[in-house]
Task: structure prediction
Amino acid sequence: MIRRATPADLDAIMAIESASFPTDAWSTETMAAELAGEYSHYLVDEQDGDIVGYAGLRSVRGSADADIQTIALLEAHRGAGRGRALLTELLAEASARGARELFLEVRADNPGAAGLYASEGFTELGRRPRYYQPDGVDAIVMRLDLRAWAAAKEATA
Result:
């Protein structure tokens, strides 16, 4: 079940954050600020009472653009469509907030995530060399036209 994240979810989110991003995980303080942020929209994926994933969006209502901040799942729950479900919820929220374009960065060494984004219509804008530290991994900057995404979803519904 996907639901809105609350401050009570912070410990579970941080456990997933640390497991998913061992060398560049966000701090607890940064994640707490994200969860409480006025322009943030965070979700958790809860299965059998346990949080197995989370995702975050930064979007100012009425702004033409928004940013996917993060999506992460426990390793045992990857590849089962849960990341796509979280992403789809974020895309719908960004669209509801009036965004027309959505941006994100993904690690160049994470082809699974990059493939997920591409399958939903994100296109590569460019790369930021050695963006992810301390690993020195490039970031792939991607963009999605939300109106085209929504039209494509409507056409297949």
In short: The chain has one domain: 2-156.
